[in-house]
């Protein structure tokens, strides 16, 4: 089912889930696109090159930086990088990279790979990978981004790269008439944006013929909560931007 209960991409409860919990899986596909574009725009990245990618870690969907991301960040911020050291510790090859900004601030990060019994071109590729990893990690660090780099996720077990697949329609459980009535009542009685957001997830299981009615109840409840908060002199968390 692709029909959404609301077109508000920034429902306070959803935004709070993303910013505090760091989990993008609660967003709809349209909301994820909006969030992705805003993150890229905030950093000056070209979204057409897909500088960021999705990854699921510990049950949470988040973003990591691809090569295009760190390359663009170095250009945007004028980051210059020099290799400080190349060392071997047993069969671990370690490269230390130093980054410098135009204002003179510096930072350092290491990139390490396990060479093991690798030989020839395999060993050469691993050595180059260590240098690449050190450069990308120090780039993200010096510009203040606490996200994983593309070269780091390959060693993370059970990591799933890419957006989550939508559940097939035939596997989606629709709500019964009684559940629909109870859901509409719950929406009408909701007292916070957090409650509405949770109920919105259940609204998407309603048959298409009931979507318009539920959307109207949802919109009325949202407006009521906004009026109540304005009357109390408080602003809803996350704002009310619908762009």
Rounded mean pLDDT is: 79
Structural class of the helix and strand makeup?
alpha+beta
Sheet with the most strands: spatial strand order: 2-1-6
What does the largest sheet look like? 3 strands, antiparallel
List the total number of helices: 8
> What's the SSE pattern?
HHEEHEEEHHEHHH
Estimate the global geometry from the Cα principal axes: elongated
Helix content: 40-55%
Radius of gyration: 23 Å
Specify the oligomeric state: single chain
Question: What's the number of extended β-strand segments?
Answer: 6
Beta-strand residue fraction: 15-25%
Report the uncertain regions.
Answer: 1-10, 167-172, 235-243
End-to-end distance, in Å? 23 Å
Keywords:
three-stranded antiparallel beta sheet; disordered N terminus; alpha+beta; about 240 residues; 8 helices
Layout of SSEs?
Layout: H1 12-21, H2 29-43, E1 52-57, E2 60-65, H3 67-77, E3 80-89, E4 92-100, E5 106-114, H4 120-142, H5 150-153, E6 160-161, H6 177-189, H7 193-203, H8 208-231
Helix pairs in contact: 6-7, 6-8, 7-8
Task: Characterize this entry briefly.
The protein is about 45% helix and about 15% strand. It has about 240 residues and is an alpha+beta fold.
Provide a descriptive summary of the structure in words.
The chain is of the alpha+beta class and 243 residues long. Among the domains are: 80-134; 169-231, no CATH class. 46% of the residues lie in helices and 17% in strands. It contains 8 helices and 6 strands, in the order ααββαβββααβααα. It is elongated and about 65 Å long. Residues 1-10, 167-172 and 235-243 have low confidence and may be disordered.
């Amino acid at each position: 089912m692709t029909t959404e209960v609301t077109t508000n991409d920034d429902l306070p409860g959803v935004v709070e889930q993303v910013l505090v919990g760091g989990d993008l899986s609660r967003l709809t596909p349209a909301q994820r696109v909006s969030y992705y574009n805003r993150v890229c725009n905030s950093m000056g990245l070209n979204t057409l090159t897909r500088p960021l990618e999705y990854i699921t870690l510990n049950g949470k969907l988040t973003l990591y930086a691809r090569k295009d991301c760190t390359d663009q960040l170095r250009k945007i911020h004028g980051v210059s990088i020099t290799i400080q050291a190349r060392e071997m510790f047993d069969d671990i090859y370690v490269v230390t990279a130093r980054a410098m900004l135009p204002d003179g601030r510096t930072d350092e990060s290491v990139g390490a790979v396990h060479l093991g019994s690798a030989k020839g071109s395999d060993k050469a590729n691993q050595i180059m990978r260590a240098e690449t990893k050190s450069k990308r990690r120090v780039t993200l660090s010096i510009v203040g981004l606490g996200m994983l780099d593309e070269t780091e996720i390959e060693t993370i077990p059970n990591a799933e790269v890419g957006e989550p697949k939508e559940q097939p329609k035939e596997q989606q459980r629709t709500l019964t008439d009684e559940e629909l009535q109870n859901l509409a009542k719950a929406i009408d009685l909701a007292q916070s944006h957090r409650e509405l957001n949770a109920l919105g997830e259940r609204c998407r299981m309603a048959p298409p013929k009931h979507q318009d009615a539920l959307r109207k109840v949802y919109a009325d409840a949202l407006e009521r909560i906004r009026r109540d908060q304005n009357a109390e002199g408080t602003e809803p968390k996350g704002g009310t931007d619908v762009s």
